[in-house]
Amino acid sequence: SRYVVTKAHIDGAPKESDFELKSESISLLLDSGSNDVIVKNLFVSIDPYQLNRMKSQSSSQIYSTLAAAINPGEAIDAYGVAKVLVSGNPEFQKDDLVVGFITWGDYSVIKPGAMLRKLDPMGFPLSHHVGILGFSGLTAYVGFFEVCKPKKGEKVFVSAASGSVGNLVGQYAKLFGCYVVGSAGSTEKVQILKEKLGFDDAFNYKEESDLKATLRRYFPDGIDIYFDNVGAEMQEAAIANMNVFGRVAVCGVISEYTDSGRKATPDMIDIVYRRIKIQGFLVTDFLNVYADFISTTCDHLRAGKMHTLEDISTGVESIPSSLIGLFSGHNIGKKMVQLAYS
Ligand code: NDP
């Protein structure tokens, strides 16, 4: 069984030499009385937050178990879909499909108490259960509906809009009846947003020198909702263009993850006079909305009203480059790695 580990803590942009593949044989025999479950990993999720867990000091780890530090040399847990090989836990049987926290490797030994449940694919490809029907989808759904509290006709701006969470925020917002503009880092991505996903407009932020002026051009009447995935100067520019009683959902600040010196410093007086509400959130705060999210999203998918954007690499050796690629925009849509086919 091969699995990915970090060689040391990573502060700054990750690179291939920060990672190594470890290999060890795993026994398919459980000790008597063991409640462990041994699974073959099929798909694992590649997420920006993993980098924050690899830092020497993660200030966020005290707030969420999902942000627990990743120690060099140790297996790395990640969301994914797997198949049960051996189970000492009466909840799971051999050959069950499961979804939850597995590891960045070929196989995982899941201890009792880990977040794992049986998966009914409901006729959808397994990859959808990592992306649109997994945590990315839930993040987009709760971030938009529960945190932003949209009203029909409002004007919505989404950054990292071709990414896993961003593209779904834009699609939910369009279906709900909002006007949606997204920013992304290439011409191809901008085209996908406008032509495939139905965004009202989109722009390549890398071609813009004055983001405040850019947003004024796309939102001459101001922004009501900003779904922030990137932080730093994009957040400052969006806040400078917000309407009175605007809402900012801070989902993530990826442009700050690789550079501890980069920070958003929005103009506080704008926030005061325009009564702007800025709220950070974690998807795990909203697990109570899960059933509603799944039924709504499955209905949209079956009706052909939502589209999936998935970016799948194969093999455990492609995990490090997949993570690294998130920070330079190599991915289009949900980044994941397929480890086995059945
Ligand atoms: P994405 O699929 O969006 O991948 C990351 C994307 O971010 C890249 O494709 C790239 O696209 C963009 N990006 C990378 N570096 C920069 C930069 N310096 N400036 C601007 N854009 C950049 O990842 P996710 O959808 O998984 O995550 C999106 C955000 O949501 C992240 O901030 C993440 O931490 C957060 N998140 C938060 C959760 C929560 O519970 N709060 C849960 C899940 C995710 P481009 O080509 O446009 O630059």
UniProtKB/TrEMBL annotation:
Q: Which GO terms describe its molecular function?
A: oxidoreductase activity, acting on the CH-CH group of donors, NAD or NADP as acceptor
The question of whether Chloroplast is a record keyword is answered with no
Could you confirm whether the keyword Oxidoreductase appears in this record?
yes
Task: Show the InterPro entries listed in the entry.
Answer: ADH-like_C, ADH_N_2, ER, GroES-like_sf, MDR_fam, NAD(P)-bd_dom_sf
Q: Which residues form the Enoyl reductase (ER) domain?
A: 12-337
Q: Which UniProt keywords are present, listed alphabetically?
A: Oxidoreductase
Q: Which branch of life, at top level?
A: Eukaryota
Entries under SUPFAM superfamilies matching the protein = GroES-like, NAD(P)-binding Rossmann-fold domains
Under which name does UniProt file this protein? Enoyl reductase (ER) domain-containing protein
Q: Which organism is it from?
A: Hevea brasiliensis (Para rubber tree)
